[in-house]
Automatic annotation (TrEMBL):
<protein>
    <submittedName>
        <fullName>Xanthine and CO dehydrogenase maturation factor, XdhC/CoxF family</fullName>
    </submittedName>
</protein>
<feature type="domain" description="XdhC- CoxI">
    <location>
        <begin position="25"/>
        <end position="91"/>
    </location>
</feature>
<dbReference type="InterPro" id="IPR027051">
    <property type="entry name" value="XdhC_Rossmann_dom"/>
</dbReference>
<dbReference type="Pfam" id="PF13478">
    <property type="entry name" value="XdhC_C"/>
</dbReference>
<feature type="domain" description="XdhC Rossmann">
    <location>
        <begin position="210"/>
        <end position="353"/>
    </location>
</feature>
<dbReference type="Pfam" id="PF02625">
    <property type="entry name" value="XdhC_CoxI"/>
</dbReference>
<feature type="region of interest" description="Disordered">
    <location>
        <begin position="364"/>
        <end position="383"/>
    </location>
</feature>
<dbReference type="InterPro" id="IPR003777">
    <property type="entry name" value="XdhC_CoxI"/>
</dbReference>
<dbReference type="InterPro" id="IPR052698">
    <property type="entry name" value="MoCofactor_Util/Proc"/>
</dbReference>
């Protein structure tokens, strides 16, 4: 596989997995995609999580913590050979030690869809790469004339037919349009059932972007950690070129601080961190990002006193920050992890941005009431 980290392909992010899927399709190589359809109880991954398996037995990503990997690989290779999608249910609550081995411990029932990586994936993969969310509807079980694996893709309220799959009838799509509307642009997954037909509603959203303004050495751990958790990263340096060989960003630019906004594409899916360590440059970048973009989050590195100095500088130039502006700013930036090493600071900041992008507060899970993840199961009832 062209993008696989051969030392640890299991750590692939959603961004990495999509890149590899596009690469395999372009190369005409056979592969299978395993997707979690539903979870009853608890499990390591949630509905919508995916794993990619190539014909040469390489795997990429994960749908469990590893306890079902061999079983999923066997199913995937059968799907690759037969070109027919399959659904499988693994009951890890019963934990049949003779079948699965000792102590799986996920304490849940997991339903998987394993399907060929065929031309039906081309349209949704291209759409999310272009920054457009799509909803993929796939029949996972059927007692009707609509065969398993039938697929329709929805984007901007328009149904898109795909190659290599039967189309889901319009009347069936219309019957669960409310579910599609709820799932679209949320990166969530639900299943719905009607007249013996079960359909997976899979919301695919573009990869979140992280814009880093700065050019000092501390941008390296920031970009590295951001890439490791799946952000698409861009570094914009206001003073001097950045050593591209040492900064693992997806793209890098150099230019005046006021040019930073030109690197914001889909604003609502972009998060920014200002960390040039130059007060004037930071002020210009902050002012530009607030006035010229609608990004939901802008982290500013430095202590409160420095941020107050930045705000005072804006006031002197008659550029007062509004309440709405301040609501988008995190200063000081980062979660309170207590570390002071450069990589610890980067981890604090990337963790906060990840929490914000997932609409979370970033607190300790042991203090959270209720389930860790939202329960997105059948449309008619929760898990």
């Amino acid at each position: 596989m062209s993008h696989v980290d051969t030392d640890d392909p299991w750590s692939a992010t959603e961004k990495d997995l999509r890149e590899e899927m596009r690469s395999l399709r372009k190369a005409g190589q056979r592969a299978a995609v395993a997707t979690i359809v539903s979870v009853e109880g608890s499990a390591y991954r949630r509905p919508g999580a995916k794993m990619l398996i190539s014909a040469d037995k390489d795997s990429y990503g994960a749908v469990t913590a590893g306890c079902l990997e061999d079983a999923v690989l066997d199913i995937a290779h059968d799907v690759i050979d037969t070109h027919e999608p399959r659904t499988e249910v693994f009951d890890l609550i019963q934990d049949d030690t003779e079948t699965w081995g000792l102590g799986l411990g996920c304490n849940g029932v997991i339903e998987l869809l394993v399907e060929p990586l065929d031309a039906s994936w081309d349209y949704p993969l291209t759409a999310v790469a272009d920054g457009d969310p799509v909803t993929v509807a796939t029949v996972t079980d059927s007692e009707s004339s609509t065969p398993k694996g039938s697929r329709t893709v929805i984007m901007n309220d328009t149904q898109q037919n795909v190659n290599n799959r039967h189309k889901i009838p319009n009347e069936l799509i219309d019957s669960f349009s409310d579910t599609i509307e709820r799932v679209h642009s949320t990166n969530q997954t639900q299943i719905t059932q009607l007249d013996g037909t079960q359909i997976l509603i899979d919301g695919l959203t573009p990869t979140a972007n992280l814009l880093i303004f700065g050019g000092q050495k501390d941008i390296t751990p920031m970009a590295k950690l951001a890439n490791q958790v799946g952000f698409t990263t861009h570094v914009h340096s206001g003073r001097g070129a950045v050593d591209r060989s040492s900064v693992p960003a997806d793209s890098i630019s150099t230019g005046h601080p006021t040019e930073v906004a030109t690197h914001v594409g889909n604003a609502e899916n972009t998060y920014a961190i200002v960390m040039s360590h130059n007060l004037l440059d930071d002020r210009l970048a902050v002012e530009t990002l607030l006035s010229e973009t609608e990004i939901p989050y802008l982290g500013v590195m430095g202590p409160r006193e420095r941020f107050k100095e930045l705000c005072d500088s804006l006031l002197k130039d008659n550029a007062q920050l509004t309440t709405a502006d301040l609501d988008r700013i995190a200063a000081p930036v980062g979660l309170d992890l207590g570390g002071g090493e450069p990589v610890e600071i980067a981890l604090s900041i990337v963790s906060e941005i990840l929490a914000v992008s997932n609409d979370r507060e970033g607190g300790q899970l042991c203090e959270r009431t209720g389930p860790i993840h939202s329960r997105t199961g059948e449309d008619s009832n929760s898990e």
